[in-house]
Amino acid sequence: MYSIFKKNLKIHRMKTTYLLLLLFFAATINIIAQKPKKTYDYKVFAEKFTKNTRGTIEPLFGYAKEWSYIAGKIGKSVDDVSKLSKKHYTRVKEEVQKTKAKGLLMIYDKAELSVVQESPIKVANIKIFVSSGNDKYTFTLKNCVQTDKTWVLGDDAIAEGPMFDSEEAVSESVTTGNTNKNVPYKGYLKFNKETVGKEMKGYYVTTEGTKVEAVILNDNPNNMHNNDIELSLFKKAYGEQGYTKNSSNFNKSISKNSLRAFFVAKHLYVKAGNDWFILLNEAPISKVVRISSSTVYKTPESVEKKDLIGKPVRGYYIDKNGKRINAVIKYQNVETLTNMNSTFLLYNIAYNEKGFTEDESNNFKGILMKKDVKEFHLAGFTYYKANVSALNLGGEWRVLSDDISYTTGKYIYKTGGTPKEESMLVMGFKKSMSQITSDNTELSTKIKNKEKGYKITNIEKIIKEYNEWYLKQYPGKFNYVLADIKTVAVEETVVTEETGNNSNTNTGSSASPEHEKFGKALLEAFKSDTPDKLLALSWTSQELGNTIKEKTKNEDMKNAFISRFKKKDPNNDAMQKETKTQFNNVKGEHKDLNWEKAEYVSFKFSKQGISKDVNFDWGSATLQFESQEAHYFINVSEFMHLLSGWKGASYMFK
Questions:
Q1: Rounded mean pLDDT of the chain?
Q2: Rounded to 5 degrees, what angle do the CA atoms 468, 472, 478 make?
Q3: Among residues 56, 281, 300, 340, which one has the fewest Cβ atoms lying within 10 Å of its Cβ?
Q4: What does the angle CA 532 – CA 535 – CA 541 come to, to the nearest 5 degrees?
C-alpha cells in the first residue's frame, strides 16, 4: 500500500513540475513577444538602415522618447534635439539619393563601428559594407547616437566606392582655352587629395579681367568653395627652391569678391551662386563640381603638445571676414584649446624667437574671442569649428583626421542662377529642369510633358540642346570666363600695409589727417637722438586701461585686460622700458641710414577685428620714408585710438 502511495506521489510531483515548466515557458514566450526588436546592436541598426533606404529613413532619426533621453544626457531641450534631427535628416537623405541616382541598391553585408566619444552619451560612426549586383561600396553613417534602447542617425553620411570616385574630365590635360577669344573652358575633374594643404603655382583673374600668376594655397575644399574665406597667397610654392613652411613664406590674402576666377591644382574655380565651384564644361548651362570632405576628427588628446602649454607659439587664424592673420598665440591645455567659448591670448614674439622675454607685460598684445574666428593653426595642426556629434550644439575646435575622405558632387549651373546637384534632380526632375530651361519654351514644355527623350536619363542631351539653342539665339551674349583677359607675369609683391604687415591686417587700411600727423611725428621721433619724443607717442598700460574701462562693453575682455595690467605692469612703466629698447634697436639696425635726410612718404593704418570687441579703433600701421633714394618701412604693431589720442607701440623695421 505504501509503495503505491509513493508511486502516485512521484507521478503527482512530475505533473506539477511539468505544469510549472509549461507556465514558465509560456510566460517567457509572452515576454519575448512583447520586447521591442533589438536595435541596440549597431549591426542590427545598420542592417535596418539599409532596408529603410527602400522606403524612408526618417524613423531612424528617433522620436520623442529618444530625443528626451538624448536631451537629458547632454543638458539640452528636447526641442533642440528634435530640430537638429530634422536638419540632419535632410543631409543624410541627400546622400542616400546619390546612390539611387546611380541606380544602386543597398544590400547589407557587414558593418564596422568607430567610436567618436563615450560620454556623456555614446557617439560613433557606423561604416556599412553593401552591394548592388556586382558593385560593392560602403555607406558610412556619421556621428550616430546610442540611446538606452537603440541607435539614432547622426548629422552626416558618406557613400564611397569606385562609382563615386572623382571622374576624369573631358581632357586629361588642363585646357585653358584661347584667352583672346570668347571660347568655352574645358576643365579637369580628377581630385588629388595629396595636394590639399600645399602652396601651388596657379593664377587668379580679377573682376577687371587681369590674370595674375601667383602661388596659391590649395586649402581644405570647404574653404576653397567658401566665398567668405579669402584666398591665401604665398611667395614660394611647395617643393620650390627656397620654400619654407613657416609664416615668413606667407604673402597676403585677397578677397574672392575681387575675383572672376582662380586656378590651382589643375582646377579653375568660378563663382556660381553664392559659392565657388570647379568649372568642368563652360556653357550657358555649365557643369560645375564641388568637393566635399568627411568630418572625421582626431581625438583632442592625440594632437596635444604638453611641452608647449603656456608658451606663445607662432601660428595664424582666419578672422570673421575670412582673412588669414599671422599671429603669436599662447598654447593652451587641450580642454581650453578646444573650447569654443574660450579666448586666445595674443603676443608679439614667440617663445623660440629672438627678443622673447618671460615678462608678459612687455610681450602681451591682446585678447581674441575664439568664437569670432573661422579656423586657426597652431603647433602644426589646423583647428576647425566642429559639431563633433549631433549633440554638440555649441561645437568645439577639432583637427581633421589624416584619413579624411573626399567626395565629388557634380552640379549643373545656369548663369545667374543657383547650382543644382545632378543627383538631386532625380526627384521632381520635370519641374526643376523645365524651370531651368524656361526661356526655351519648346524645350521646357517637352520636359514638363515628360516626352520621350526628355527625362532624367536624357539630361546630357537636354543640356546640350539648350546650350546650342541659346548660343544660336543670342550670338555673342554669353561671356566666357577667360575671354579677353590681360596677363601679369607674376604676382606683384609690393611692400604695403597688407603684404608687409600680413600678420594683423584684416579690415582694410586708411590714411586720415590724424594718421598723417602721427606718421610725421613718428619719423621726427626716430630722427632725434633720444627716445623722449617716441615715448610721448607711445601708449602706457594706464592709458589703455582707462580707455578699455570706459569704452569696452565686453565684460570678460575688460576684466581680463585690467587684471593683467595690474599684475604685469603695476607701476605703469613696463611699456616705456620696452619702447626705449625698441628705439635703440631701430636706430642701430641700419648703420648706414642717414636720419638727417630722412623724408616722410606715407603712414598707413590697418584696422583689426579686435576693434569691434574693444569698441575703439585698434590695429597696426606702417611708416614709409626715404633717405638718399632708399625706401624704409617701420612697422607699428599696435596702433590705437585711446582717450588720450592716437598712440603706438612695438616698433621695428620691416
A1: 81
A2: 85
A3: 56
A4: 150
Condensed to tens digits (0 to 9), the pLDDT of residues 569-625 reads 666 777 788 889 888 888 887 777 888 888 898 888 887 777 877 888 888 888 888
On the question of pLDDT at 458 being above 80, the answer is yes
Residue percentage of the chain with pLDDT more than 70: 83
pLDDT digits (tens, 9 = 90+) for 139-152: 999 889 999 888 99
d(CA 432, CA 420): 9
Quote the radius of gyration of the chain (alpha carbons, Å).
32
Torsion angle of the four alpha carbons 140, 145, 151, 157, in this order, in degrees rounded to the nearest 10: -20
Residue type, 142: K
Which tens digits make up the pLDDT trace of 417-444? 899 988 778 778 889 999 999 999 999 9
Question: Could you give the 3-state DSSP secondary structure of residue 398?
Answer: strand
Distance of CA 485 to the CA centre of its chain: 31
Go through 33-51 and write b for each residue having 16 or more CB atoms within 10 A of its CB, e for each that does not.
eeeeeebeebeebbbbbbe
Give this prediction's pTM: 0.53
- The tens digit of pLDDT for each residue in 5-28 reads 445 545 555 555 555 444 444 444
Phi-psi region of 167 (alpha: psi -120 to 50; beta: other; left: phi over 0): beta
**Can you give the pLDDT at residue 568?**
60
pLDDT over 50 at 172, yes or no:
no
What 3-state DSSP class applies to 647? strand
385 with 374: CB under 8 angstroms? Answer: yes
Alpha-carbon span 325 to 649, nearest angstrom: 19
Q: Is the pLDDT score of 3 beyond 60?
A: no
Determine whether 266 is exposed, middle or buried from the number of CB atoms within 10 Å of its CB (0-12, 13-18, 19+).
buried
**What single-letter amino acid sits at 648?**
G
Q: Is omega for the bond preceding 120 within 30 degrees of 0, making it cis? A: yes
DSSP 328-382: EEE---HHHHTBTTSEEEEESS-TTSTT--S-HHHHEEEEEEGGGEEEEEETTEE
Distance, in Å, from the CA atom of 272 to the CA atom of 275, rounded to the nearest integer, reads 6
- Residues 6 or more apart whose CB falls under 8 angstroms from that of 519 comprise 600, 602, 603, 621, 623
Tell the residue number behind the cell numbers 620654400, with chain if given: 243
* pLDDT one-digit tens code per residue, 92-113: 888 888 788 777 888 999 999 9
Phi, psi of 628 (to 5 degrees): 55, 50
DSSP of 148-207, one letter per residue? SS-EE--SEEEEESGGGSPPP-S-SS-B---TTS----B------GGGTTEEEEEEEEET
Candidates 552, 554, 566; CA nearest to 642 is 552
**229, three cell numbers:** 574665406
Question: Scanning the structure block, which residue is given the C-alpha cell 540642346?
Answer: 465
